[in-house]
């Protein structure tokens, strides 16, 4: 262990002690994986701060973003991200830039979460005053290099991941089945840092921007006006329709089923009747209002015994995109 880590001037200063602990953790938790260059950067920052204090002046040192992570998590996440972009044939300078954006994005998101928790403000892609600009840049870059490309059968969803799996089983491309989405899901990037889950909202916005190329299909199991679909995706789609003169349609598919197994979900027709199999591909509604009406017709037609078996029925019926339905069931 480097001698400067146990020097009195380090031990007596909380900030320097914290930096020292990061380096110690890096050595202890993942000695073969921590590149010497990263440890060297931390050492330099610590020494620079120490020397400035010795000279009786303050120094504003930008702590490397690695220092806010635990060593082994940082390395594992970096390995996954670099491997993914290397597969996409990106050059090293571009990969380096993207990795820096991921690091700063995580730091930004942590600060935004603190702000939300302490001041009760809304954060995210749809709140410009509290937006994660690094995540915004990542999404823009990924859209440009077609990591978010949706081919010609693009789908959005709401109501649980099983809905996404259902749409994918019918041949649609959801965000999770795009190149970047599949990598994030398969590699579980957010296990390294929970704040990466917020990146989905930024990716979703760019994913939706492709809608002008073809019709877009909306698969829903509930109509929650606070969901990403209705807060971010649908407003963007409606704006794109105006810009492109309605060249594409927004088509709605309604699913029901109190299950996380995509194969057990069923589609509804316009009368609120169950339909399954290939027929589900061709069942869609032209508006969220008519789609929600069909879903509610289905639930209203259930017997008391059937209704009691559906655990999330009250939750589904208490959320709505239509004012006439905004009541607790």
TrEMBL record:
Domain of life, per lineage: Bacteria
UniProt-recorded name of the protein: Uncharacterized protein
